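Our preliminary data section would be incomplete without showing what the modeling component actually yields. Below, a chain of 392 amino acids is followed by its predicted structure, encoded as tokens that our downstream tools consume directly.
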Amino acid sequence: MCIEYYLSMWCNNLSKSILTGFLILILLPSCLVPDEEIVQEEIIVKVLPPEEFIIPTDFDFEGTIATWSGFSPAAASITFDDGTYDQYAAAFPILEEIGIKGTFYLAAKLIDEGMWNDNGTMRQMMNWSNAAEIAAAGHEIGSHSMNHMDLTASGVDLEQELKGSRDFLEKNLSGVKVETFCWPHWRENTESLSAASKYYLSGRSGNGLISYYYKRKGGIPSNPPSDMYKVNALGILISQEEEQWKAVIDDVLEKGSWFVSSYHGVDNGTLSDSQMGWNALNDKVFRKTVLYPVEKGFWVDTFAHISKYIYQRDAAVLSIRNRKYFIEMSLDDQMDDKIYDQKISLSLKKPENWPTVIVLDNMGREIPFKTDGTLLFIDILPDSSVIEIKPY
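Predicted structure:
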């Protein structure tokens, strides 16, 4: 009985010793090495698509840069001259209701003074708070000079009217970048155009009579406009019939160009004469003129956004590379991305053996796209970043 007892004890102790030694062998390395020096090897398994998804070496991707954002047939900008109170009280709410963004060209000193003697007619201007609200809603604030002077007249201080107005607007509207200019009285000349190019990305001119619109300032803007600092606009006036301004918009659509409208006043029936701009349009007519390009499929955006798109589109170089299992794509315009920040619309052909795709940016994040089953439609910044398109 004693022999059996001691034999059992010896076996138990032997088992404990073996187990202890085994644990020491396992735990000792981690006890001896500091935590920060422990390196865990990460195993990355790269899963390639099935062989049936390989892209043929001679596949034609048919990459295309869109003339206008979203492959729209034409572009349009809704713009306002001067900055009278009705533009804030009557026009701004209509644009917000429809869901489009306009460009408000403000005569800087007149906004600051509050009232404007417009050739004997006193007009109330929107105030800085009104302008800030418009800007905060995503509309563009542009310059209409400092004093609303004819900048082709002799003795005009172009530096003050151009640079001074821009700086004054930006000083009084925190966070607002003033990027485009609108010529007072629709007048500009070689000297003023050259001066404006130092301080702005582009400029808007225009004509009030439809017959002048077709004959002067280059007529319907070419694509791109022949001079980005005197882009022609049509002044929408109360004397025009609906069929007349619709015919102009239809002509721009046929040419696939850029329709720019110019408004001075909008009458909603509640404002006094002194609160409205020159040639105030009935608000119902104004709504119709704004909605018509939308209904026709125009890309409607601010004057600055469309100007930037034109510059970037015309400078961009599209590169598409066949990587056998995926497509690698990049777009570069060699322009300052802090200023020229518009996404450019692209299309390319999807490999026929891919049922659907996923589009990823250089950080691995998904990029939204549309497809008609054959073509992919993608909006990307032309900043040379590499985009990957894979079967999914």
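The longest strand covers residues 75-82. Residues 2-32 form the longest helix (31 residues). Preliminary results of this kind motivate Aim 1 of the renewal.
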